[in-house]
Amino acid sequence: MSDREPSRHVFRTSQLEEADGPGLNPTNNRTMGEIIAARFSRRGFLRGSMAATAISATVSPMALLAAGDAHAQGAVEGSVFNFPEVKAGVDADHHVAEGYDADVLLRWGDKVFADAPEFDPANQSEAAQERQFGYNNDFVGFIPLDGADDHGLLVVNHEYTNEHLMFPGIVTVSDGEITVSEATEDRVNIEMAAHGGTVIEIRKTDGKWQPVLDGMLNRRITAKTPMTISGPAAGHARLQTSADPSGTEVLGTVNNCAGGVTPWGTYIMAEENIHGYFIGTLPEGHAEATNYERMGIPDESYEWGRFHDRFDVSKEPNEPNRFGWIVEVDVMDPESKPKKRTALGRFKHEGAASAVAGDGRVVFYLGDDERFDYVYKFVTAGKYNPDDRAANMDLLDEGTLYVARFDEDGSVEWLPLVHGEGPLTAENGFESQADVLIETRRAADLLEATPMDRPEDIEPDAEKGRAYVMLTNNTKREEANAANPRVENAFGHIIEITEDGGDLTATRGTWEILVQCGDPAIADVGATFSTATTEDGWFGMPDNCAIDSDGRLWVTTDGNSPSDTGRTDGLWAMDTEGAARGTSRLFYRVPVGGEMCGPCPTPDLTTFFVAVQHPADGGEDWEEFGRPSYYEDLSTRWPDFDDAMPVRPSVVAITKQGGGKIGA
């Protein structure tokens, strides 16, 4: 380990979350980087030395340097946002724009039920964690109760666990070498209980949000919660195991990253980096070998398979096929079984934001978060019925899954993943629609979809017929050429898709780059923020996003750091229209080591919920700390700043002092 290599690159669960491998796409399908380069080259944008970056020529060299030392304190001309910008930087605390409060609402270990035990980090147990708020909150959704703005259900994903930050006494550092002790069965079971999700009633009283611990709808979902498998792949032989010969029942969900709330008020969880939970070796010549290789299974980031045979592929070779799906939860029935909806495909799902199209069908946009993987959307066969919730409860079992192909003429085509069409036939190993969905990645490979730079959250705007695609980065390209001169897309970009006729169900549309991320003061980076963006307003690594009820885009990030960008992750406001298009400004930033997740504005825009994930995960590249960060020696003890308490991932409620609309 180098002197400045962040410790999150050393601890195995942190490596899993970063998806830092070279990518698993074996095809030669033309990448988005090549398409971007070719498109803008055709427009004649590449000139002289600026040809070093494919997109940077959309902004002049003087414009790239124009941000200077300015800080946005009020409205930018043409902007839909108005707030004093937070100064970018790195420290142990969180920071919000002046005039706003950022109140910690729920922390890892907080009670979800009135009878739950108090959090005791030195004496954790599976039974306690099952009734406490889980670890590493990611997606956050708000579901109003009885139409109220100040009373509802908060739904929160718990993506994964960081053992080195959670458990005392397991990390040893000697002569610069980090050792983590082998997992015990008790520790594994606590980790499993800390995964999944939380449904909890919250209420705003005297301007501040509080959990309602005796709420009848409160619920914890874990890696052991019984679930039903539904849709075209349900019951297929490839999903059958010794514990479930029917192939229709599965225990739990893991690595739920972003998610969604459906128009009918159910909670969507998206299973992402499932490969890290499996150990073992498939039997020689096993039929799933190619399938699992395409998904990176097994990765062995967790040791669950030592104590639970279902996570050992040598003992239960079909179990991985039961993960990597979209999960739907009926929050109005805490006794209901969550359903894994196989019609939406199996891959490393980042999220599942949705909108109702003009004809009443519902469209879900889906990103496969790995380097050189794809962008998808799912269009329901049935139509949403706003007057009959029950009529909508199985809409996700029937519909068409599409994968995107972007072309250099600025068009995008949505290719249907339907058995029997094109190459998706028995000759290529697809005997049924179930096979197409179980091996969604391989099916998309054959359709020559466009490999992307880590597709993350995708947010549709039904009123404008658009969708915004967050592409975090891709530092694993190995060859530079005239068509693809930016070998390392270290900072990511955001693509704006406009569907034909403004119809989200359309199978064709157009695409533009909203912004190429990174520091615009460094010409070789090729960032394309507007010149009104200040030195605090730019960011790298876009991850999650939200479109609020006023149609404004908010972006959160994952991967900013002292060494890479000189700033922590945060929540940025991004203009998408008019003269201010491409202008970004910093509204909130996280403590050192944290990731900004779960941007969730309430419908009345008086509250913005955000999730701070894995704070203190890393510390070597922060000059004020400069060493590995773990339970006993943390780079921050946010949010409690109590020596008796570890760092705790938390959900934060942001409100305007004196009331009023966020960001205005």
TrEMBL record:
It comes from the Bacteria. Residues 1-30 are annotated as: Disordered. Signal peptide: none annotated. This is PhoX family phosphatase. The lineage of its organism: Bacteria, Pseudomonadati, Pseudomonadota, Alphaproteobacteria, Rhodobacterales.
